[in-house]
Protein: TIGR03943 family protein
Amino acid sequence: MTREVRNALLVFVGAVLVLIVADGTVLHYVRPGMAPLVAAAGVVVVGLALLDVVRDLRRSGPEDGPVEHDHGSGRSAWLLLVPVLVVLLAAPPSLGSDAVDLAGSRTVAVGRAPEEPLPPGEAPDVPVVDLVARAAAAPDGGALAGRDVTLIGFVVPARAGPGVDLARLVISCCAADASPVRVRLDDPRGVVGGPGSGADRWVAARVRLVPGTATRESGFVPTVTVVDAVEVAEPTPAYEY
Structure:
């Protein structure tokens, strides 16, 4: 691989990093706080490649010898194109029900319950991870007792028994460390839908916690009664934190 080709490859890789940050695709892979770092990495890669090009142009002259080749790392450098072309030409979607299925019966991710009160309103939006943490911390429901809240998540087959669950994926850094949080839907009117009605459908569901259901025996999966629900587009970002 010549130095010119190597530098062109680095410019391409860096430009793609900046592009996926600009169009929001980066949120399929990392949390929003890391997007500036990805963009900065892309700018640095492009800058280093262009700096090398400028240095070569300043050193070039009629007395120059043959074009330099880097035989030691040429083949491995081309491997950089594989993930870049995948992201550029066929950007993988955010993780969904398949990732939840892979987790199997593993206990859902339960973080520390938020200390702040629920947002005001008749049915405020609450992250699924927050509802699960609050339900696990307070068997009597705590701040959720008797309150309607709105959860946004995607439909997955119920982990135990008939019906469906509502799930989200929580990431600490990037999609590689994603862990599922889910709630069991008590949906007697079939507002969300039964088994086979379409996994990965995103819904905004107005629900009410059934106290005492987020236990170790249930894998800290609380049950919520569905009051109403509508299908929605996948939010951006699709993960919770």
The first strand starts at residue 148 and ends at 157. The chain has a mean pLDDT of 83.
